[in-house]
Each structure stands twice: as C-alpha cells, then as structure tokens.
Write a structure and sequence with these properties.
By secondary structure, the protein is mainly beta. It has one domain. Helix content is about 10%, strand content about 35%. The protein has two helices and 21 strands. The strands form three sheets. An eight-stranded mixed beta sheet has the order 1-2-5-8-11-14-17-20, with no helix packed on it. Strands 3-6-9-12-15-18-21 form a seven-stranded parallel beta sheet, with no helix packed on it. The protein has a six-stranded parallel beta sheet with strand order 4-7-10-13-16-19. A hairpin with a 3-residue loop joins strand 1 and strand 2. The chain is globular.
C-alpha cells in the first residue's frame, strides 16, 4: 500500500519518537528549545502546557526538534532539517528552510517562504503571499491574501485559495548545445 508523501518523508527521516515529558521543562527537547531562545537573546513565555510564545524575531538553528506549538510576535526563520510536532504561528515574515517538517499548521500575518522538500502536515495560511519551493508537500490547503507561487513538483492535498495570482513554475531546464559550434 502506498504511503502519503508526509508518511514517506517522516519515515525516511527516521525521527526519534516523541517522549512525553513528566512535567514542563524536564524533557531534553524543552531544554534545547530554552537554550536556543536564551542564546538568541529573545524573551519567551509558556502558554499552557504545550505552547511557547516568543517575543520578537527568532531564528531556529538547523536540526532542532520542537514538541511545543510556537507563537512568534515577530519574524520567524527556521533552519534546515528542523521538526515541529505542533503548529507554528508568526506575526512577521516566515522563512522555512529545506527538509523542514511541521506536523501542524503554519500561520503568518505576512509572507511565507517555504524552501525545498519541506512538509507541512496541516494548512498554510498567510495574510501576505506564499512561495513554495520544489517538492514541498502541504497536507491540507494553502490560503493567501496575496499571491501563491509553487513549483509543479510540489503537492497541495486540498485547495489553493489566493486573492492574488497563482503561479506554477516548471523545473529549471538546461539547454545543452547540440553541436560544438553552438558553444561559441
């Protein structure tokens, strides 16, 4: 039986199984997130048991695994190969790196730029424009108040709704010379 692209990518990446922390702050993943936020010198607070609010702009380093929902009051940059087990919301511009997995929804009040081979298990909602790189998988819909740009080898399982234009890009093609004279 064929697996969905999300299941294939998650299985291929061999992510560690999430461990439920005994209490908030006792898991190593929670400590890693706290260390990243402290190193970035941004303020944060916990909202309930499963959500972290981050005040200001933040950039997550590559290969970070986050088990909480993330709410950012500024711009958000996510490094390559990060995994978010919840949803992500940002008030500023969102840059998602290559091979990133977000199992929940991705929401932004401005533009969203998702690089190559990223997986969003839920929906992408932007009050600006959305750009999807090559081989991006969106498990639900893409909703944008601006334009949507995506490559033809990306997949959106449900609908694409845009108040602007929807532009589908082809794979970059190389024109090879047919003879030595064409090289010049």
């Amino acid at each position: 039986m064929l697996k969905t692209p999300l299941q294939r990518i998650i299985r291929r990446s061999k992510l560690p199984q999430p461990s439920k922390p005994d209490s908030v702050g006792n898991s190593s993943a929670a400590r890693d997130l706290e260390n990243v936020l402290r190193d970035a010198q941004v303020k944060s607070s916990r909202i309930g048991k499963s959500t972290v609010r981050i005040f200001g702009d933040v950039a997550f380093p590559p290969k970070l695994e986050v088990f909480d929902n993330i709410v950012v009051t500024g711009a958000l940059t996510v490094g390559d190969r990060c995994v978010f087990h919840g949803s992500v919301k940002a008030e500023g511009h969102v840059f998602i790196g290559n091979y990133v997995v977000i199992k929940g929804n991705l929401i932004s009040k401005t533009n969203v730029d998702i690089h190559d081979e990223a997986v969003i298990g839920g929906a992408v909602h932007s009050e600006g424009s959305v750009r999807l790189g090559e081989k991006v998988f969106i498990g639900l819909s893409v909703v944008a108040d601006g334009d949507v740009e995506l490559y033809e080898n990306s997949e959106v399982k449900k609908n694409i709704i845009a108040h602007g234009i929807i532009k589908v890009l082809r794979h970059p093609k190389l024109d090879f010379p047919s003879t030595i004279e064409d090289i010049g």
